[in-house]
Specification:
By secondary structure, the chain is α/β, with parallel strands linked by helices. It folds into two domains: about 5-55 and about 380-435, Urease, subunit C, domain 1; about 55-365, Metal-dependent hydrolases (TIM Barrel, Alpha-Beta Barrel), CATH 3.20.20.140. It has helices spanning about 75-85, 105-115, 135-140, 160-175, 185-195, 205-210, 210-225, 240-250, 265, 270-275, 290-300, 315-320, 335-345, 350-365, 445-449; strands spanning about 5-15, 15-25, 30-35, 40-45, 50-55, 55-60, 85-90, 120-125, 145-150, 180, 235, 255-260, 305, 385-395, 410-420, 425-430, 430-435. The strands form two sheets. Strands 1, 2, 3, 4, 5, 14, 15, 16 and 17 form a nine-stranded mixed beta sheet that branches. It has an eight-stranded parallel beta sheet with strand order 6-7-8-9-10-11-12-13. Helix 8 (about 240-250) links the parallel strand 11 (about 235) and strand 12. The longest helix is centred in the middle third of the chain and has 16 residues, at about 210-225. The protein is globular, with a radius of gyration of 21 Å. The structure holds (4S)-2,6-dioxohexahydropyrimidine-4-carboxylic acid and zinc ion. (4S)-2,6-dioxohexahydropyrimidine-4-carboxylic acid binds near residues 63, 95, 181 and 282.
Amino acid sequence: MPVDLILSNAKIYSRKGIIEASIAIDESRIFKIAKETNLPTASGKLDLKGLLVLPGLIDSHVHLRDQQLAHKESFFSGTAAAAAGGVTTVIDMPNNKPVTMSSKSLQERMEIAQRQTVVNVGFYSAFPQNLSEIHSIVEDGAVAFKLYLSQKIGGVNIEDDEALLQAFDKVSETKVPVGVHAEDRETIEKGKRELLKAKRRDVEAHLEARSHEAERKAIQRTVHLAQRTSAHVHLCHLSTAAGLRDVLQAKRDGLSITCEVTPHHLFLSSKHLKQLKTLALVNPPLRTRRDNRALWDALRRGRVDAVSTDHAPHMIEEKKTDSVWDVKPGIPGLETMLPLLLTRVNEGHLSLSILARATSERPAKIFNLKDRGNLVEGNHADLVAIDMKQEYKIDSSRFHSKAKYSPFDGWRVKGKPVKTFVDGNLVMDEGEIVAEPGTGQIIRRPESS
Ligand code: DOR
Ligand code: ZN
């Protein structure tokens, strides 16, 4: 019997380095990687003409919106953006309308997503009010829980450490991780009150309220909680050098902690806010060059587990209001993450192995996405073919996301995802979405445990 597809003439990234070979795909999985002469016959064949093939990116921090926020992004537009950016699996955040925080809201979301997605989607849930529901939410397929320390989203009082610990302990029974947005609500509110009193409404006021201290305090609190529970804690979008230092120390101390950084906190500093203004407003905010450098340094040393986008689409009008306090925070990142990182690889500032580890291998491990994250035989055929030589300018007007703006607009990049395969299906070809809505898989936790 012939296999389904052979991708020939590729430069394939593997842990041992780059190998020139072909990939045989059968029944949505990688059947064999070898020289073409050693592969079985296939029903279909595609010549990749020397393109670099990486494991499809797994972006563990994405706001796909939809439902009552579909005007900002839908499962289709968000996953089309993912496919265009070489991302084959996204994990969706729970701060939706309605909030994902029960079996019912999760199932509803999965049902809508099932019909629309072109890449794989896993789901975060917020903590439910009744902690006994945590087990059923995981049985229904949530791959992680999310805790926001900056505002109450979900059913647990975020000022109450004991209540949070109970939630962490319950989650630890299910073995899924708890993702934490570490910015301290009280510090932010206090700062904001003072700035409002001083009639500040400029973009810098946002940075002042959401200070370095606000992140550090929340990280220290999270580390203390992590010391008292066996739940795995994943710190989302670290933005400060001091916060990062505390997390790395906690890891060295042996706590079950991982962390992620975003491209915007790596590539942009508060200096960029001067030109970009509220378009680049995001939580946590852009920090100093020194913070950027600390994040890069830790990433290059392999100490940062994941690079994730925190793709947070809003309508352009919501990004440009008179008062900074009314601006919706967030940056759409799915279509720029890989080109930005590839540019750093081309410049010799980032190794391909760190890139693949942080954008695929580690996220697959942390969120227990079975048989994904590596190009090895037997794994799902989630992969991205890249033209490392192509140079171009980022043009947000051509995004597939509904959010057609970017702080990286006009940036020159080198390295372009040109074909994305999800479970062996070609979903993006030369920037075009060629798959039917519903091609992507809903990733449910039982599959992965
Ligand atoms: O900038 C942000 N945008 N930070 C968050 O924590 C939420 C996100 C959103 O949902 O828009
Ligand atoms: Zn987020």
